[in-house]
Amino acid sequence: MYTRAEASSIKQEFWTAFGKYMSPIPSAEEMKINWVNYHTRVKNIHFRMDADNTSATISILIQHPDLEIQELYFQQFVELKELLHASLQEEWQWQLQIPIESGKIMTKIFKKISGVSVYNKDEWPDLISFFKQRIIALDSFWENARYSFETLK
Q1: Averaged over 131-145, what is the pLDDT?
Q2: Cα separations (Å) of 6 from 11, 13, 54, 60, 127?
């Protein structure tokens, strides 16, 4: 078992390694991009990657404080579901308006794998492979899809 500081240090080391690995890869628009801290350029829509001691998850998070607008964003993703799944070459899980620890409500579209640990450096290649192909596919999807969300601002 790791102390909180050790766990944080290992996670930081993983994300730094992932960022260095991904840094030569340009975005779908052929621009330099920070893959670890991906900016959608649409407020309240985020692409997030997370890994812990038992799993890894990549997500599209919709965190608009107005639940009606949050649902409107979700419905827009539903309209683009075929394009999203075609870009990802797999289906993801969809959860509309779920409560989170902070007491807020968010909507989540995600892919999760279990049985991997960010604290096991031998599993880092599996985690990097999991995140790499999906964040690149999300970027490709978002290059075309983001414009339909900008009109909803």
Answers
A1: 96
A2: 9, 10, 17, 28, 19
Rounded Cα–Cα distance for residues 25 and 34 (Å):
10
3-state percent breakdown (helix, strand, coil) of the chain, nearest 5: 45, 20, 35
Torsion of CA 78, 81, 83, 85, to 10 degrees: 160
Query: How many beta carbons lie within 10 A of that of residue 72, not counting itself?
Result: 14
Please state whether the predicted TM-score (pTM) of the whole model is above 0.90.
yes
DSSP β-ladder status, 93-99 and 55-62:
unpaired
E strands, the chain, where? 45-51, 55-62, 93-99, 105-114
Cross-strand pairs, 93: 110
Number of domains in the chain: 1
Q: Find the domain containing 124 and state its range.
A: 4-150
**pLDDT, tens digit, for every residue of 77-114?**
999 999 999 999 999 999 999 999 888 999 999 999 99
Residue 90 near residue 133, CB atoms below 8 Å = no
